[in-house]
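Handout, section 3.2

Students often ask what a structure token actually looks like in practice. Rather than define it abstractly, here is a full record for Aspartate aminotransferase family protein. The first block is the sequence as you would receive it.
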Amino acid sequence: MPTNPENKAYMKTEGDINLTEGRTQWWAEHIDETSRAYLQEDEDVFLHQTLSTPCLNVLSSCKGIYVQDAQGRKIMDFHGNNVHQLGFGHPAVIEAMKQQLDELSFCTRRYTNLPAIELATKLTELTGGALSRVLFAPGATSAMGMALKLARAVTGRYKTLSMWGAFHGASLDAISVGGEGAFRRGLGPLLPGAEHVIPFNSYRCVFGCQDEAHSLCLKPIEYVLEQDGEIGAVVIETIRNTDVQIPPVPYYQKLRELCDKHGALLIVDETATAFGRTGTMFAYQHYGITPDMIVLGKGLGGGIFPMAALLVKEELNQAQTMSIGHYTHEKSPVGASAGLATLRVIEEENLLEQANYLAGILKQRLQEMMEKYLIIGDIRQLGLLAAVELVADRTTKEPAVAEAERVMYACLARGLNFKVSKGNVLTLSPPLIITEAELNEALDILEKSIAEL
């Protein structure tokens, strides 16, 4: 497959590396001529961008925990862009959408519809009523934009504080508060007032925190809030999804205190972690806090329909004179039906309990691997979200980038797909519907592939 050498500066970013000899070798060994032709057509017609051009392979179908490529190979998907809490093509979601298509396929502006009202009500109930106002959007990037606009409207402040390395969407406003180089580089000037600090990192803490609360990690946030005095909102991923950074409980409790002290709203981005991924419906529920706003997306549409939401506290309902969202598909009855079906399945099939049970198995298996293989420098996990960080040396913590790529392709050859973050972190996000046997099969594949190193 043709590659553009000029793009290689962007290779070590959030996604797996798609312009290396490893990728070329993978294509040679596993992609037939028909798929190669499709991949070339894709490259010829789509705008090129890092992380997705050229593509890895061509998919033909998906069902349950599996995707299937054009050559008929079934692959367990532990990536899924984090939309697949219910796996792919869950029959309850599809049936709900089919029924809705026959009844009301679109809701014209100025009108509402029962599925949208019911979904909004259900989401507020899942927060215990702490966040009682909702707006829908076609995607979480747009929901983040709504949150930023509402924060300005309510506080009268345009400045935000967020984390380097974070991802909050791909639009211009979202990349301004986001901190990933692949999305920001070369696109300035971005939104004024979007301030950033060094993020929490339990394994590579630049502050050398010795206490369990990682209290020094909060010092930059506290300093900026105090010195600036005009920060309207702190924007943060509750748990950094890609390389799975899980702050301790005191971190968030102190962050909540700092926001209250300095008049800043706390916006948590749960796009990738909501709806049971971490063992609770929302990840912030692990921390005993209530954010001022939550951004939701990805899995809300059941892995089928693009659906996102912004949930906010009652006292933030102060923007009646402006349009915060106003998207064409804002109150999509089909999307709302998909969301309602998704939440019903999670409850009726006890998927939170399932996630917590399987999380114990996942934890034990990964810890056993770490004891056996020195290349594993760290394991980070909450619920069915885990990171396996590969290092060349446990003392220096030098990232094992080439080895991570080899493990990824070895796993793909055996039927397991996952995301590689930061070049050396294997990120595992299995669907919540996965069985114990399937989880163990996937972990067997992972261990075999690591053992080969």
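Discussion prompt for tutorial groups: The mean pLDDT is 94. How would you have guessed this from the sequence alone?
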